[in-house]
UniProtKB/TrEMBL annotation:
Domain N-acetyltransferase as annotated: residue spans: 19-161
Keyword Transferase included in the entry's annotation: yes
Keyword line: Acyltransferase, Transferase
Family annotation (InterPro entries): AcuA, Acyl_CoA_acyltransferase, GNAT_dom
Protein name: GNAT family N-acetyltransferase
Catalytic class of the enzyme: transferase
Amino acid sequence: MNHPKTYNAKELKTPIGSIFIEGPIPPDKLAGYEFHEGLVAFRQPKQQQKALVEIAGLPEGRIIIARHREVIIGYVTYLYPDPLERWSEGNMEELIELGAIEVAPEFRGFSVGKNLLRVSMMDDAMEDYIIITTEYYWHWDLKGSGLNVWEYRKVMEKMMNAGGLEWYATDEPEISSHPANCLMARIGKRIHSESVQKFDQLRFKNRFMY
């Protein structure tokens, strides 16, 4: 199920100049930009840029970026779930994961995260997908933000809501291991009820084991 990736863009006017939110970005273009040194949530900036270029080259992979001049200062990724995760077990072509979202610390506070999600959903092809994201508190920048776990969770939920993602219950062990962790999802308008059922079965695997 490979949809054409329709490019969309939006300009955010901020006190430090315009920030452009755009994508999906093709791999060659992504490789040509500078990657901000503050993007260190998942791995070192150069390695993370390399990983994003690989994702952008996947048939289902989508990278939406935020850039300040020619520097990438934020991004969001969409791709099929990791084969080792529960979410890939249904082999659902219509289920993709919002795998990572990150904004460089000095550019936070300008609604960059929310707008990365809004631009992502401007593409009509997203109505053919169930988009999931798994939020784990150990990935959150609690130290840098000065927020506690619950405050940060609220910020994450609000940001995801901007892209139409909502909280969904699940018995997945890692998510269930801490009450701040959560599963969020957006079910596209053209998703059939059988797919929703399949998704429900992935969300609850231990339902009949009590």
